[in-house]
Each structure stands twice: as C-alpha cells, then as structure tokens.
Design goal:
The structure is a homodimer of 383-residue chains.
Chain A: E1 12-16, H1 18-28, E2 33-39, H2 57-60, H3 63-73, H4 93-102, E3 107-111, E4 122-124, H5 141-160, E5 164-170, H6 174-184, H7 202-216, H8 227-234, H9 238-249, E6 254-258, H10 261-273, E7 280-285, H11 286-289, H12 296-303, E8 312-315, H13 325-331, H14 341-351, H15 358-380
Parallel strand pairs in A: 2-3, 2-5, 3-4, 5-6, 6-7, 7-8
Antiparallel strand pairs in A: 1-8
Helix pairs in contact in A: 3-4, 4-14, 4-15, 5-8, 5-9, 6-7, 6-8, 6-10, 9-10, 10-12
Chain lengths: 383, 383
C-alpha cells in the first residue's frame, strides 16, 4: 500500500524502525481518524530567549488558545492576528487546519493547564498551568495524577469512535520541559531537542534544566522509574494528558503522537507507564527529522531500546517549493513543527489510502495560508 | 425482566406508553451507561419569584457549576456549601451522585452557556448564556445552530462508548423556558410544568412567557415547525445541546432524557427535528409524575401524538421513608427532580439488571447525604 522508496510525490516516510512503520501505515490506511489538540502552558516560557512561539512575550500566553481557535474557526478570537514568531513566521496550525479540512478529519480540543481558555468548543481538564521548571517543582503531584487518570478515560472514549487518534500539542517552551523530563529519566537529550529557531538555544535550555534538576535534587536518570515525579518536578501539564490519552486510546485504536522531540519525552513517559506500545507511532515533519541542531532519531531509539520498536514517521509537505515566504521559512529552519502539523499530514494522507500526495498537501496548505493569513492582512490594509 | 406490577421494593415504573416503556427497560437492562450533565444559564432566572434553585439570588448563578462540582468531586468548589433552596432543601445532585457511585456509571459534564464554569473537568461548547425570555430574543439564532450541530457530533462520540446515554440538566428557571417553548410549538403546557416549590408559581411563569411571546410576535403554536426559532426567541442554551446530544447519540445507543417537564420541552424539539424517537425515553422521579401542580403525562402524550410513543419512566426513591428531613422534603413537594436525579435512579437500577432495588437506592442516597451535607456541616459546627 505504501511504497516508501517511490517517487517524490510521496509525502510520507519512515525515519526509524522502518518495518514497524510500514506495518503501522498499512494498518491505518483508509481508517477513520480523529485529531486531538492538547493545549497547555508552563511559566518556563517566560524565561527570556527560550521560545519564539508568539510575536512578543505577552502574546506567548495566548498562543495555545489562539492555535485552537484557528483550527476550529479558521481565525483567532482571543488575539487580533494569528500566532507567529516575532519576525512573522506563522503558526503550524495553518498546516494542521489545511490537513483536517483536506481529509475531513474531526477535531477535539483539550485544555490541560492552558492559561487562556480558547473561545471554541473544547474539553477542559480544569487543571492549573505549570510553574517554571527552574524551581524543580512545576506541578503538584496530585494534579499530575488527576490529569493522567482523567485523560486515560477520555482517551478511551475518543478512541471508541475512531480508528486512529492523532494527538498534537501547543505549549510554548515545550522542548525545554521535554529536555528536563528526558534527562531525569535517563535519556541523554542534551543538544538533541528541536527548537522553533534555526539557532537552537541549547545552552540556555540546559542551564534552565540543570537549575531545575538541582533544585529538585534530581540527577541524570534518577527518575527513570518515576515518570509521575519527573512530570511533577520538571515537566508540564501537556505531558500527563497526552500520555494518558495515548494509553487509554491504544486499547481501542491506533495512536499517532503528532509532534517532534516533545513527543519523544511523552513516549519516554508512556514507555514506563504502559507495556502497550505496539499501536503507537510518533509522526512529525521532515523539518524535525532533518533538524541539524537536534536528533529525534537518537531520542526515540534510546527510549525504546529493549525490543520495543516505536516507528518514527515523517511527512514532507515540500514547503521549500512554496510560493509563500512564510511557508518556505519552515524549510529554512524556522518553526518546523507544532500543533501536530506533521502528524496531521500523515493522517490526511493515510485516510485517503495515500492517494493524497505531496502536491495535494502543499496546495491545501497554500490555500489555507491565503485564507487565514493573506486575505485578513489584505483586508486590514484596505486592498 | 422488569415486573412493574410487583412488590414495593421495585423502584422503577412506567407512567405512560407502558408497552414501549417495558421494552425500553428490557433493552437497557445490564447495558453500559454514561451520565451526561448539561449545565446552562438563562437570565430568566433573575426574575423575582421564578426559581428557588439557590439559597439566594446571587447564588442561583452558581447552582449549575456547583451541581457539576458536587457530582464530580463530592463537594462544591465554586461556592462554600452545596446548592440548596433558600430554606435549605438540598440539590438533587446528591441523589444523582449516589446513583452514579452505586452503579459505577461514568460522568461527562457539558457546559452549554453556563455563566460560571465548574472547577471540574468538563466539555464546554463555549456558548453565551441565555438572555431573559421576556425580551422574546433569548439566544442568537446562529448560536442555537452552532450548539445544536456541535452537540450532535458530541452525542455520537459519547454514544459510541456506551449502551445508554443518560442526559440530565441543571439550569435555574428551566421550567419557565420549557413552558414558553412548548406554547410556541403548540403544546398547551399552561399549568402543566413542574416547579421546585410546592406552591407552583404558574401565574408568574405565564406572565413572563406571554410577555416574551408578545415581544417575539409569536402566538400559541406559531413556531410548531420552527424549533430553532422557538429556542432562539423563547428557550435556553440547554435545549439545543440536549436535543443535539440525543439526536446524535440515538444513532448508536439508547437515550434517557433525565428530567421532568423541562425534558418534555426538549422532546417536543427532538420530535420536530428528527424521526428517530424509537430509542428515546424520558425518565424522571415519581415526585414529578405525581406532582398535583403539573401534568407531565399530558405533555408527553400530546407531543408524541402521531403513533410515536415515547415512554415516560419514573423512579421512586422512597424518600418519604427517609430519616433525613432534607430528603423527606422531596416527597413533600419540594425540589422533586433536577440534575437528572430520576433518570440516574433508573440507570443505576437498569445497569444492575434491576437487582438494585428501592431499598438500595434509598440507602445510597442517605449515605451520600451524610457524606456531602451532614458531615461537612458537623465539621463547620466543630462537633
């Protein structure tokens, strides 16, 4: 069904654990899909220089809610424009929305500790947002457990109405909390997590994480078997939610963890919490897989060492060929992934039995870009 | 399976359309159940004398959220005590919670236009609360459509993970909006809707409704075939949500509309919007069925006149035999129903294959009353 070695029209490939990956893609071909966006917030995002997920510091708080609104309404309601980097690179929610519309995939928004609630229908876990991990005490242990348990139940319900549950996230500074949790769990993620900037601020992330670990009294690998403590001390509220959703959902459906190195951290948690990884894959963009400043292959490989092979799937939306500068930026090392964009491309293609190809995907994304970004801008400028 | 004519241990009976009712109860016996509480708000509740769903006027706004919190946590978080009438009769959420725990029935809270959001996990439709129906313009037509469409989708998802979806509500002044919608749709509900007071304020309700109809330019029956307009002009945001949930859910599961005369109004809407009423029943308490100030039998009968027979099921929790004064009040004409209490009793009994009897139900409710009402009160009083 999927010929991963074929022509350049093919938008989906497997970067790690190829046999399992092709088996996974065959299994989800022409299935029903549901896309779930988990939005969340950690005060870690307020550390200078750690994230560009927002045009300025005040707007970063709004990014998760605005991403959710963009997916649901095609425009944001909590802020005037759409989320973008300070120099105007648009949120990957544009890609995700294009894919959900292209393949008619239903959306469920889940709030797990976001600070601004989206003006769109959503499920809220009624959880507090995360504190800065620099304190080594990000979330109460009780809250982590509650989010996790409730998400398992929610994952079961959602999975019973679909064949494949795709789980994306929007949380600013998520790669920093991912780094912290992976280090605490004994995955050497130093210099291996991605960034939405071409100039990945590894030294800053490490400094923040090391300070958090020092305050928590935690060393490399010392929380290897204590995933809940790792989240409570050094993680964010997205993590127990996505882990719970996946663990609940996999009883009834296939699960795509739609994201880059943040989802590697979630996979590390799942791997410790559950033995059922056989129907789980990570799917991301080619921009994360090929990120020269990171190494997601290494992360996934070292998480699933002991004869558990979770495939790392990628989608190449060929944005380098786009006529839109804001989209070409993705191929130049900006943004790269987020809001489950890569997984949404994989899902759209798989739902169509892989008949939706790279050209269809690029065209849909460009149309969405025109509708959600260029058209409103023209109307503001009175043209 | 169900012997409705048997001994007084039997807590469940059929008040209307008996054959269909027994068939319905047989079909749901020993099935999986999910209980959904829809919380909402209408400014109609601010009219003097129209509702006692709250200890005072300011607290009425909090009642739906507090009911949801009580169901989820076993205590309220938005207010200090639990919802009660001004003279201390407790919310029927105590009964509902007892039943969900007795029969291990999972809960989903849905916010459709509540003004205070519950501090508990819930799905929100992100809808505005309703304005007073005295203006004849309670909700925007667009909002009604959005709530309805989204609820259909949500009903489908929820129903796919259960055998029977039980839908209850908490909205103060809901019998007044129910009266208005039924009159506009040609159901002569005057002097036939229930009240949480023994002294049903029919004249006040009618005055409010007639003023609303006058302002909307609507007469008796003139919106017979325009259910969405009836809700927009004279209804509340609970209605399109419950109607949508039921219509979506009935494709995959049985549906219990858990409530009294408010659910009769929803049934009138469903009857116009859908032809699939065969797997729907109304279930309420014996206190509503036997309410001398109302007539739910008449309402259900006249809604489903043309060879559609929706059963009216009731549960008798035998609260007249309770040692607790707050519970005996239910049998004396106070509160009577709400938060899906009657339907929750039916569901608990049905889930057990009707082995859970009236004695079990009364005992569970009394235990819940001790835990949620008496114990916190004792601790406040330092005893």
């Amino acid at each position: 069904m999927l010929d991963s070695s074929s022509n350049n029209n093919n938008s989906v490939g497997v970067a790690l654990n190829k046999d399992k990956g092709i088996e996974f893609l065959d299994a989800i071909a022409e299935k029903e899909f549901r896309f779930t966006l988990v939005i969340s917030y950690t005060e870690t995002a307020e550390i200078d220089g750690i994230t560009v997920a927002g045009a300025d510091k005040d707007l970063v708080k709004f990014t998760p809610a605005a991403d959710a609104e963009l997916l649901y309404h095609g425009k944001c309601k909590s802020i005037a424009s759409i989320p973008a980097t300070p120099d105007g690179k648009p949120t990957p929610a544009v890609i995700t929305r294009a894919m959900l519309r292209l393949a008619d995939i239903p959306l469920t928004i889940i709030d797990s500790g976001s600070i601004i609630k989206p003006l769109a229908p959503h499920y809220t876990l009624s959880a507090a947002h995360g504190k800065s991990i620099m304190n080594g005490n990000a979330i109460s242990r009780e809250e982590v457990e509650q989010i996790y348990r409730h998400s398992i139940e929610l994952g079961r319900v959602l999975a019973k109405s679909t064949g494949c549950l795709v789980i994306g996230e929007s949380i600013p500074a998520g790669t920093t909390t991912a780094l912290a949790v992976m280090l605490a769990m004994g995955i050497d993620a130093r210099f291996r997590v991605s960034s939405s900037m071409p100039n990945n601020p590894h030294p800053l992330k490490l400094k923040v994480v090391e300070e958090g670990m020092r305050r928590a009294g935690v060393g490399f690998g010392s929380l290897k078997d204590r995933p809940m403590d790792a989240i409570a001390m050094l993680g964010d509220p997205m993590m127990p939610c996505v882990a719970g959703l996946a663990i609940g959902a996999v009883e009834y459906a296939h699960v795509i963890l739609a994201g880059g190195t943040q989802m590697a951290a979630v996979l590390a948690l799942i791997n410790t919490l559950s033995s059922r990884l056989d129907k789980i894959a990570i799917a991301t963009t080619s921009y994360v897989v090929n990120d020269p400043t990171a190494d997601i292959r290494y992360l996934v490989k070292s998480i699933t060492a002991n004869d558990v092979y979770v495939p790392l799937i990628y989608a190449d939306p060929m944005l380098s060929l786009s006529s839109k500068r804001g989209l070409r930026a993705y191929a130049e090392g900006f943004v790269k992934e987020g809001v489950g964009a890569g997984g949404a491309c994989v899902a759209a293609s798989a739902k169509s039995g892989f008949r939706i190809n790279a050209r269809d995907i690029l065209y849909s994304i460009e149309m969405e870009y025109e509708n959600t970004i260029e058209a409103p801008m023209r109307s503001v400028m009175g043209k």
